[in-house]
Structures are given as C-alpha cells and as structure tokens.
Amino acid sequence: MPGEEAAAGSAPQLLTGWGRTSPSACDVVHPQHAAEVRAALQTAPPRGGIARGLGRSYGDAAQNGGGLVLDCTGLRSIGSVSGEGLVTVGGGAPLDDLSQAVVPQGWFIPVSPGTRFVTVGGAIAADVHGKNHHRDGSFCRHVTSMTLALPSGEVCTVTPEDGAELFWATAGGMGLTGVVVQATIRLLPVQSRFLLVDTNRTRDLDETMALMEQGDEAYRYSVAWLDLTSRRSPGRGVLTRGDHAPATALPASSRSRALDYRPRTRLAAPPWAPPWLVNRLSVRTFNEVWFRKAPAERRAELQSIEAFFYPLDAAAAWNRVYGRRGFLQYQCVVPFGAEETLRHIVSKLAAAPAAPALTVLKRFGEASPSPLSFPIPGWTLAVDFPAARGSGLDAVLDECDRLVVDAGGRVYLAKDARMRQDLLRLMYPHLDEWRKIVRRVDPHRRLASDLDRRLDLTGTRRARKQG
Amino acid sequence: MTDALGRARSVLVLGGGSDIGLAIAGRLVARGTRRVVLAGRHPQAMAERARDLQVAGADVATIPFDAADIGAHEKTIAAAFADFGDFDVVVLAFGVLGDQSAFEQEPAAAGLAVVVNYAGAVSAGLAVAKQLRAQGRGRLVVLSSVAGQRARRDNFVYGSSKAGLDAFALGLSEALRGSGAGVLIVRPGFVRTKMTAGRPPAPFTSSSEDVAAAVEDALDREATAVWVPAKLRWVFLVLRLLPQPLFRRVAARSARGEHQ
Ligand SMILES: Cc1cc2nc3c(=O)[nH]c(=O)nc-3n(C[C@H](O)[C@H](O)[C@H](O)COP(=O)(O)OP(=O)(O)OC[C@H]3O[C@@H](n4cnc5c(N)ncnc54)[C@H](O)[C@@H]3O)c2cc1C
Ligand SMILES: NC(=O)c1ccc[n+]([C@@H]2O[C@H](COP(=O)([O-])OP(=O)(O)OC[C@H]3O[C@@H](n4cnc5c(N)ncnc54)[C@H](OP(=O)(O)O)[C@@H]3O)[C@@H](O)[C@H]2O)c1
Fold first, then answer.
1. What stretch of H or E contains A402?
2. With contact defined as beta carbons under 8 Å apart, do A379 and A339 qualify?
3. Which residue, A7, A62, A255, B228, shows the most beta carbons closer than 10 Å to its own?
4. How far is CA A438 from the centre of its chain?
5. What is the C-alpha to C-alpha distance for residues A113 and B40, in angstroms, rounded to an integer?
C-alpha cells in the first residue's frame, strides 16, 4: 500500500538546538491538529516524545534521541484580537506571525525574546523573558489560558486560577508536562511600530551597572550590550532603553503608516564557515566597530520594532558562522546584592579560553510562580562562546556555575547545553514541587527529551542499579 | 549525553580491566564523566582498579562479561543499557595478545584468541551498535592495532584478528552513518601495558595515557580513526605498500620484540 511507508515513519532525523551541538537522531512527526498531537503521544515509543517549536533553544531541550519529536509548527492558527487585547493562538504559532497579525491592529506581543522566530509553545515552555522583564515579568504572566495535550491522551485547559499548579508547571517546564496546543495571550496596546530609544555608551562594567540601577525603572525596555574583549575596559558597553512610540512622535507624513509592520530578513550567513572564524581577534574587531558606531549619548531616537528587538534576525541562520562545532550561550542570573559575584563572573568569562562573542546584561524584576521559570530578581548575563571542546572552557563555565549557585542564582535551561547535573537542585530549589506535578500528569514518562536525560530534570532517570 | 563541549556523561568499558580502557575512562572522568561501568571477567579485580575513578568523582559499577561467551553478549549489553541508562561512550577494550610460537604448537589456543579478539568483538560491537542506534547517539571506541595493518611472521594470529576487527569497525562506522551514533577506531603501536609486560619496547612505543589522550582528542574532533602515535599513520601507509621481501626485512629489524 502506498500509505504504508509514511505510517511506518520515515528515517530518523538528526536534530540539534540553535547552538548546533550534540545532535541526536529522532523520529519527527508533524501534527496539524490537537487530535494528531494526542495520537502521537499515545503511540510514543519507549523513549517517549517531546514537543519542538522553531528550535531556537540553544541546547538539547527540543530533541529526544531515539524517541519521538512532535514538530508543533503546524499548529499555527491565530484568532482575532478581542477588545481587551486577548488573542487565542496555536501552540506552534511563531511570535513573528502573531506580531505581524496584531501590530496593524494596534497591539504587540507582551514579551519579546531576542528573536521573533520562536513559537508560542516554546515561549511558554521556557517562560521566556524580554527587555521588559523588570517591569512586566516573563511571558507566562501574560498568558491567560493554555490548552495542553497531556501524556495521558487527555486534552485540558488550565489558567492561573483554574488548574494553576499545572499552568505554572508548564510555564518554564521545558515541554515535559504536556504539549501546548493552544494559548490565550494578553497583548499590549501600541500606537506605532516604532520605539523611542535612549542610548548610552558606557566606559566599563561599573558605569553600565550604575546607569541601569539608576534609570531602568523609567523605561519599559532596557538592555545593555557588553564588550568583554576590550583589554582596557572589559564590560564597557552600549545601553539601550525605551518604550513604544506614540503616534504623535512620528513625523506627520508617516503617521498613516504608523502600524505598517513588515519585518524582513536581509542577509543570510554562508552555509559553511570554518570553526576558527569566530575567534578573539574577529570578536574584538566586531566589538570595536559596534562600540564606536554607538553614540556616546542619544535620546528619543525612533527605532523600528525589528531593529530594537530583533537585530540578530537581520541575518538568517547566523548560528552557522560558528562552523561545524557550533556554539553555546552561557546565561545565568544572580540576585541583586550579588554584584561582586557578577563582576567576578564577567572577569572569568572575559578571560575564558574561547572568545566571548555576543554579551548581554539586563535586570530582572519579580519572579513568576513557576517552579522552574528562570528569571528571579537580579542581574542576568548572557555570553555566546564557540563550543571549543577540550579548550578548558568547560572548567571555566563550571566554576561560574559554582559562583552562581553560591550567590543563589541559576543557569537558564533553554540556553544550557553543558551544565552538570548535580547543580540543578541547588539552582532550582522548587524542583521537587515541579517533579511531583510531572509524576502526576505523566506517571509512565511518555514525555522525554535529551535535556531531561542529561540533567535528569524529571528525576526519573537515575540508574536502576548502583555501583 | 555528550554535551556541547564534548563531555560524556557515562561510559561503558568492555574489558574493564584493560590498562588502556581504564586510562581512557580516567581521562573522560577528569573531563566530567559521572558514571563508569566496567564489564569483564574479574569484577573483584576491576573494582579494585576502579578506585582512582571513584576518587576522581565517578560512580563506578562492575558487571560480569566474557568476550568469548558470544551467546550472552546481546543480553548482557542490553541489560547494561537498561540498568544504567544511556551510555555516551562505549570502549571495546578486551583483547588477548598471546604468543605466536605457542599458537603454532597449539592451534586451538589460537582459535580461542581469535574468538575473543574478533568474533567476540563483532558480536559485542553489533550489540552495542543496536543500543546506540536506539538512543540516537553515542560513540563506540574500538581498540584495533597497527598489527592489523600488515601481519608479521611473529604476530600473524593476533595481527589477523586485529585486521578482521579493523575491517569490521570500519564497516560498522559506515552502517551507523545518519544514526546519530558513530565509531572511533584506535590504532596504537606498541603500548606499555600488562599485555606487553616483559616484552622489549619497540619503535614508536607509547603509554596507556598517551592512547587515552589521543582518544579524548579524537572524540572531540569526531574522527573515525586515530593512530597512536599519530605518525604511525604515515609509517603504515608506506609499510602496507612494501613488497613482501622488503617488508620481511623491515619487520625482522624492528622485531627485536615488537608485538603490538
Ligand atoms: C537569537 C536568540 C535570542 C533569544 N533571546 C531570548 C531572550 O531574550 N529571552 C529568552 O527568554 N529566550 C531567548 N531565546 C531563547 C528562546 O526564546 C527559547 O529557547 C524558546 O523556548 C525558543 O522557542 P522555540 O519555539 O524555538 O522552541 P524550541 O527551541 O523548539 O523548544 C524549546 C522548548 O520548548 C518546548 N516546546 C516547544 N513547543 C512546545 C509546545 N507546543 N508545547 C510544549 N512545549 C513546547 C520544547 O519541548 C523545548 O523544551 C533566544 C534564542 C535565540 C536563538
Ligand atoms: N598494549 C599494546 O601494545 C596494544 C597495542 C595495540 C592494541 N592494543 C589493544 O588494546 C586493547 C587493550 O589492551 P591493553 O593493552 O589495555 O591490555 P590489557 O590491560 O591486558 O587489557 C586487555 C583486557 O582484555 C580482557 N580480556 C581478555 N580476554 C577476555 C575475555 N574473554 N572476556 C573479557 N575480557 C577479556 C582482559 O581481562 P582480564 O583482566 O580478565 O584478563 C584485560 O583486561 C586490546 O584490544 C589490545 O589488543 C594493545
């Protein structure tokens, strides 16, 4: 029969995260409806299944070696926006599609990560944060309801009031509580597709931090780009802060097109790059240019949504510039008061045996009720590194983990690809609460991912025998 | 899971009392491996030798495994994966060198050595490959030898078993393409271990630690084969092409005791 081959499944596919490290072979299915998600979960092989969005998590969260991967990008419906700004969307809908649909109607997504190519399900599963976390909190704060396909085959809808436990366990739960097939999000009203942005160039880390401490509260959005490769002043940077521009801020001639949002991808990275392309010299040169290009101080500059939120999206597949070995991002948060630790980590990373490429610093506000959500009030630092194996980078990052843990902070699971298992519990003190809920909704462990196996997130993968 | 920086989380050594196997495990543990399972005929002796690994922070377990008991391989290896979870690296380290002149007196002994070195490695290797395929990732490290590159008069039983093993491992590496799993073939020259104890060192002699360092590096590079020391690759490129009379003379000269 012609359909037989498809039913038996096609060849396994090698999947990685955005960092292009640690591939594993997975059987990939492409459900188009909640019913197909249910069916896939119920027939999942012994190694289980996991949802995947646009694969923008850096590590191994959205892959499942030897098991099933549910590519959810077929669940991309986008409903109409209600008067209060509520919109119901499919779990696989890209935030890009959503914002292109709603900006022309005067709404914007409440939390934007640094790329618009993430799905609603991925944004929920990592409880993503944006430049407005200090003000507006993480993504799931703005989710009013989620519809989940549970491993049992049941489909249920949870809200922060009704089924709150499962709602918050799914927020930041890395896909291990169920598949988000639909969610309702509360949007933010905007008058234009522009932002009014203030920029400050800073001399060093202390000045960057001082400026952020003093002024962040006055802005909805704030983020600092740091240069860790400058020999004279590591931690110098460019701080950009702003808010959505009212229509009146635009020149009269363009006000009629104030909501005319059509982001474009202009460049593409070459499909192949030598692994040495991103090195200390090339990063330093790039940083120098970037730093000099920024104004010492500029106020109320109009910047488009795509320039302000998604500068990296201007180049498609830019993750390839790191070559065959791929790259990783180290993102941690340390609580306010642990500024000494932050400085210590910055100096360690600046001196790491691999080039600290893109570096970003921002301040988090209140944590969400989710047991596994990453943001806690404090400083978050994210640094990209080429995945230089055998270079000693692993030891440096382990040392940073220790500093982070000792300060009461944690590492972001959506970015992690190398953390040691034993620190998980120390970083996420509510881990056991979360595991209890996982055991309840998924007693037979039908959901599983490489991340889960690597860190034993669900606490079910300990060896049956001890030595 | 082998992580983004190439650190294996758990390792299985078949022939867990092997000097080279333990040196490789030690290297990986220093890098961050947390679990080591040693499989071999003498669990007690292996457990004693595992102390260093434990001190370095690994959980070590031992399981009984006999390379000559081919009928039991699939079950033993499947049980190891079921009991201890995924393995990122499996080292196929068992092997016997034997004594060429004794083999010539006692053909059955030669046959048994070949069963361990080749037939046992084939069945254990395929049983491991099945598990690695099922987990969609992982590396099988096969201890071949330069002795298999061109058999000499004074080691051709051992050499021919390693020649078979090497060809098998190359084929397996092809078979695993696209599966997420892979093979690393290790071709050492003379290595100072208990296998070669008492034999005079030959040219290009190395230590277990040298082999382990080369394996670690080759795993990082995702290489299919590694020679220890590296220059043996070029030496054997030439040796393999020599006409037999010439090779005989070269072999005789270096065979002041070289038996790898
Ligand atoms: C350039 C860049 C910038 C970034 N900036 C930020 C940032 O500023 N802030 C931030 O928080 N993150 C940031 N990220 C990380 C990214 O937002 C998260 O990793 C996000 O989860 C990716 O979404 P995705 O759809 O690609 O999901 P994937 O990467 O495919 O999956 C991520 C996780 O979500 C789960 N998942 C996916 N879909 C579903 C579903 N339908 N139901 C249940 N679980 C699901 C997966 O199982 C997996 O655990 C950035 C990433 C990149 C590449
Ligand atoms: N040393 C060298 O010069 C050299 C050079 C090239 C390649 N190699 C290869 O490297 C590998 C490791 O050798 P090594 O130098 O580390 O020697 P080793 O210390 O003697 O290790 C060989 C191991 O194989 C085990 N073994 C033998 N027969 C077995 C069987 N039937 N079942 C299970 N285990 C069995 C031995 O276990 P017991 O302790 O139970 O006997 C021993 O632990 C071997 O494959 C060898 O051929 C060695």
1. helix A393-406
2. yes
3. A62
4. 22
5. 51
Phi, psi of A212 (to 5 degrees): -65, -40
**Ligand 1 pocket, CB under 6 A:** A 18, 50-57, 61-62, 72, 91-92, 113-115, 118-119, 121-123, 125-126, 128-130, 174-175, 179-180, 312, 414
Dist. CA B226–CA B50, nearest whole Å: 26
Q: What is the DSSP string of A76-107?
A: --B-PPPTTSEEEEETT-BHHHHHHHHGGGTE
Q: Which of A420, A354, A342 is nearest to A382 (CA)?
A: A342
Q: Report pLDDT digits (tens) over A146-163.
A: 999 999 999 999 999 999
B229 upstream amide cis, omega within 30 of 0: yes
Nearest residue to A81 via CA among A191, A183, A194, A186: A186
- For chain A, list residues whose CB is within 8 angstroms of any CB belonging to chain B: 11-12, 14, 19, 21-26, 47, 59-60, 64-67, 326, 328, 387-390, 393-394, 397-398, 417-418, 420-421, 450, 453-454, 461-467
- Atom 24 of ligand 2, residue of closest alpha carbon: B94
The mean predicted confidence, pLDDT, of chain B is 95
Q: What are phi and psi of B188, to 5 degrees?
A: -85, 160
Q: Which of B108, B86, B105, B74 is nearest to B37 (CA)?
A: B86
Three-state DSSP string of chain B: CCCCCCCCCEEEEECCCCHHHHHHHHHHHHHCCCEEEEEECCHHHHHHHCHHHHHCCCEEEEEECCCCCHHHHHHHHHHHHHHHCCCCEEEECCCCCCCHHHHHHCHHHHHHHHHHHHHHHHHHHHHHHHHHHHHCCEEEEEECCHHHCCCCCCCHHHHHHHHHHHHHHHHHHHHCCCCCEEEEEEEECCEECCCCCCCCCCCCCEEHHHHHHHHHHHHHHCCCEEEECCCHHHHHHHHCCCCHHHHHHHHHHHCCCCCC
Q: Render pLDDT for B72-100 as a digit per residue (tens, 0 to 9).
A: 999 999 999 999 999 999 999 999 999 99
Query: Token match 């220890």: residue?
Result: B228
Task: Using the atom order of ligand 1, give the atom closest to the CA of residue A451.
Answer: 49
Nearest-CA residue for ligand 2 atom 9 is B143
Domains and CATH numbers, chain B: 10-255 (3.40.50.720)
pLDDT at A467: 44
A85, amino acid identity: G
3-state secondary structure of A213: helix
For residue A411, which of A79, A30, A61, A46 has the smallest C-alpha distance?
A: A61
Q: Tell me what the mean pLDDT of segment A343-355 comes to.
A: 96
Nearest atom (ligand 2) to Cα of B66: 32
Q: Counting every residue, how long is chain B?
A: 260
In tens, the pLDDT along A425-445 reads: 999 999 999 999 999 999 999
What one-letter code names the amino acid at B173? S
Main-chain dihedrals φ then ψ at residue A374, nearest 5 degrees: -75, -50
In angstroms, the separation between the Cα of residue A387 and the nearest Cα of chain B is 6
A366-391: pLDDT as tens digits:
999 999 999 999 999 999 999 999 99
Name the burial class of residue A345, with classes exposed (0-12), middle (13-18) and buried (19+) by CB atoms within 10 angstroms of its CB.
buried
Total Cβ atoms within 10 A of residue A32: 14
What does the DSSP 8-state code read for residue A459? S
Nearest protein Cα to ligand 2, atom 21: B18
Taking contacts as CB-CB distances below 8 angstroms, the residues of chain B near A420 are 32, 34
Check residue A463 and give its pLDDT: 53
What are the tens digits of pLDDT across the range B23-46?
999 999 999 999 999 999 999 999
